[in-house]
Amino acid sequence: KAGNRYARIVSADSAKRTSCFIYEINPIDFVVFSFGDSLNLYKDKKKVTRLIKTASGTITSSLWNCFVENKLDVNLSLALSDVYAWTVDFYGLQKGDNFKVIYEELFVDGKMVGIDRILAAKFQHNGKDFYAYHFEQQAKGEYFDETGQSLQRSFLKAPLKFSRISSRFTRSRMHPILRISRPHFGVDYSAPKGTPVVALGNGRVSEAGFKGGYGRFISIRHNSVYTTTYAHLSGYAKGIRAGTNVSQGQVIGYVGSSGLSTGPHLDFRVYKNGSPTDPLKLESPPAKPVEPKDLQRFKELVAKMDKALEK
Question: Whole-prediction pTM value?
């Protein structure tokens, strides 16, 4: 990869034969090609030192700008938005929202090479405090709030019941009306007209109205990462309009055939960070709380981290 470092160990004679080639995959991982009677290949890691760091800031315009203004590593802002992706709407941050975070920085040969993980954080949004604690159980680390509930939220498997899949996610599909081949970045659920359509998860309606070939259309932003859309509806549920907050499983509309459609069905799509992703391969997070047997150990961690956050 262009820009990556490498080293070559050569023989001491005039032939300068390569005896070893070392390639850095990234600042930590490297691979060694050893040329002897036969090729010997192995991967290894550089010695990494972890240092605990702290950061805090107050939002004036956006999370990104706040980090730039305070000369903080912007990669930490990305890590913070990942931790709170399911609980804080980073598109709706208000002036005065603020955060405190305790995290680990990685050092190799005395040089900072990245951020490992956030250990604890407190994000105040719209006057409400959102806590996050990294806690390991069963050899797996996840983020929980102060009560031991997972910060992740699950999605429903499908946005409606009593249906069949009539078309899947594909890069190339013959459009039934236009008769041209083009991508279909969603899943079509064939169902009778009037079948209730529900929100896949908690979120806010960003769009609700007639949208060309999509017909009656709804878009829901669930967090800073995921957005879902629902097309060809026959109508909308009461109160559904742009800006409406919806809950997982709440009826938002009804199956129809509006727009470019050959029959009643729901065109359902999922976008991750703005890019279409196959709804049938969507990995819904577990959203499990701290196990009862680990609760005391978790409470001790929370008490320790709360003292550090207050400092």
Answer: 0.64
